[in-house]
UniProtKB/TrEMBL annotation:
Keywords: Cell membrane, G-protein coupled receptor, Membrane, Olfaction, Receptor, Sensory transduction, Transducer, Transmembrane, Transmembrane helix. Coiled coil: none annotated. Its main location: membrane. It holds the Pfam family 7tm_4. The chain crosses the membrane at residues 32-55, 67-87, 107-125, 145-167, 209-234, 246-266, 278-298. It is a multi-pass membrane protein. The keyword Cell membrane applies. Residues 46-296 form the G-protein coupled receptors family 1 profile domain. The lineage of its organism: Eukaryota, Metazoa, Chordata, Craniata, Vertebrata. It is found in: Cell membrane. This is G-protein coupled receptors family 1 profile domain-containing protein. GO terms for cellular component: plasma membrane. GO terms for molecular function: G protein-coupled receptor activity; olfactory receptor activity.
Amino acid sequence: MESLIANPNVSHYHTHFLLVGFSGITEHRGLLFIPFLLVYLHVLLSNSVLIYRILVDTTLQSPMYHLISLLFLVNLSCTTTFMPKFLLGLAFELNQITLDDCLVQMWFIYVIVTFESTVILLMALDRYVAICKPLRYHHIMTNRFLTQLTLASLARSVLLMTPIVYLDSTVKFCKSYVILNFVCENMGLLKLACGDISRVQAIGLVVRMVITVVDGCLLLLSYLTILHTTMFLLKQSRNKALNTCSSHIIVALMIYASSVLSALIYRLETSVSVDIQNLTSAIYFLLPATINPVIYGVRVKEIWISLQKMFGYKEGVNQNAHNMGHNNN
């Protein structure tokens, strides 16, 4: 591995690369196959089951649950863009990837991750309207309006991320053909570039900062407004409103915290080992997809009751329905 990095072939520009995540434990990378396989299977099964329940259960047909199912779909899509390739690399050392395939993977990952941030914003908007404008909720959050917002969010993600990947496609790579990560991402690929890449790096940084700052500020403003509104509600209504938002807030904090952690680790690359960088990437890409189904499946009582129905726990369903009120939609 060290010889590949120290003595790259510079007689031509590279069009094929090796994705080598966790290179510090090269001889034992195969041991990572089982835990990562189990994580991926959990992501596939848990997110798919919850999407299915939201689609078929007539009690889960409000905009809030549609947005939650959209978040689960994002989880599935993001992990599936890179996990099969990563698992094959761990099990059979099939680590080679072409530049075109690498750019395609990067584009899908970046579009999906950006779309995820917007979905979190839409969930905050839904709760804002439900709590701050309850009498107008069903007039505002119609299926048509929700579809329009979803398509606009997807278009925003494509428009923001496509220039970054396009600029990467114009760069020549000659320093090495070893990408010390298990996914193709902008900063890792640019480390292998020849010539001046400051413009590409600057544009990538600006876009990422705009997404993080703008989305983060809008999210914070939404929940501060909701919190201010709940201060004037009766205790029971206030508790219901806050309980409804708590799962969304936990998920949002987890996603943004893992994003900031991953960005900081990469900026400190000279003092942080490559394996730590890979670990933070794994947390960033896999933690939300792994934890989101647990948070929503357990904390959102209507989804929990629906899961109990699915597995035939009728007695538990009746007890839950008796002891708990309904969330505001």
